[in-house]
Give the backbone structure.
Amino acid sequence: ACQVEKSSWSLGEANSRLSYYDGLIQLTYSNGSKYNNKEHTLRSTIISFLCDPEAGAGRPEFQVEDNYTYNFRWYTSYACPPRPHECLVTDPETLDQYDLSSLSRSTSGSNWQTMDLSDTLNLKKYYINICRPINAVPGCDRHASVCQMKYISDQGSPKEVVSVSNMGISKR
């Protein structure tokens, strides 16, 4: 992190060591530029990540500088705990309810997969999960419930690459 006005200051050295305490995720950068005080105190930064399910990636917001530390808060959906996954569907006409939770794959399982073979020169593969995001697939959006892959030729062999990273998000 750095501050730029008439001159610039390092607000701390980057690191990726997150801390978690009582539901709060924080990232601390330390050993920044020295203050012009008698002790030549090194600047530091604390970024507090807060859950906002609608924020997407969000962005940092400066809060205050106190005790030689720059404080930021960052509202983001990435700081939200996994939500419970009820998977009940109601027929709007008959009001019959259907529980599809047994089709939902947990985070420890694999996704449902299916191939579109309708165009043999343009094969597509779909990763699907029911009522929750798909389990991690490289290149697919972490919130997606469906992700489309295509195949390209890589040194004569087919290689799976993302075609559409997010084809839909499950809503309750």
